[in-house]
């Protein structure tokens, strides 16, 4: 588990989950906090209020998603039989490199946005 210089919390946790999977705890968020932002003592409580109450992978189910500028655009087209076809916007298959944050921050980089509350209801 290596921390890249300037890597944001969310990119770090996503990268670690891709490599090691979730074990049902906040091990990667806690590791990040301990090494990069030790003053962020309320990080786990804050993640919990965002919906990531039990583990790291919940950050990507309930709290953060790829930023909208990274998604493919939704579009409508008409096929040869005059049927409307709709393609919904989709998240990127792979995330671009971290846009980085300042040392000591637990805020996500520009690659991430908060999941909208209306989507979670």
Description:
The chain has 121 residues and is of the alpha+beta class. It has one domain. The strands form two sheets. A two-stranded antiparallel ribbon has the order 1-4. A two-stranded antiparallel sheet has the order 2-3. A hairpin with a 5-residue loop joins strand 2 and strand 3. The radius of gyration is 17 Å and the shape is elongated.
- Taking Cα atoms only, what radius of gyration do you get, to the nearest Å? 17 Å
Strand order of the largest sheet: 1-4
List low-confidence stretches.
none
Strand content: 5-15%
Structural class: alpha+beta
The residue-averaged pLDDT reads: 88
What count of domains describes the coordinates?
1
SSE ordering: HHHHEEEEH
- What separation lies between the terminal Cα atoms? 35 Å
Sheet with most strands: 2 strands, antiparallel
Helical percent range?
25-40%
Broad shape: elongated
Key descriptive features of the protein:
elongated, 32% helix, alpha+beta, two-stranded antiparallel sheet, 121 residues
Compact overview of the structure:
The protein has 121 residues and is an alpha+beta fold.
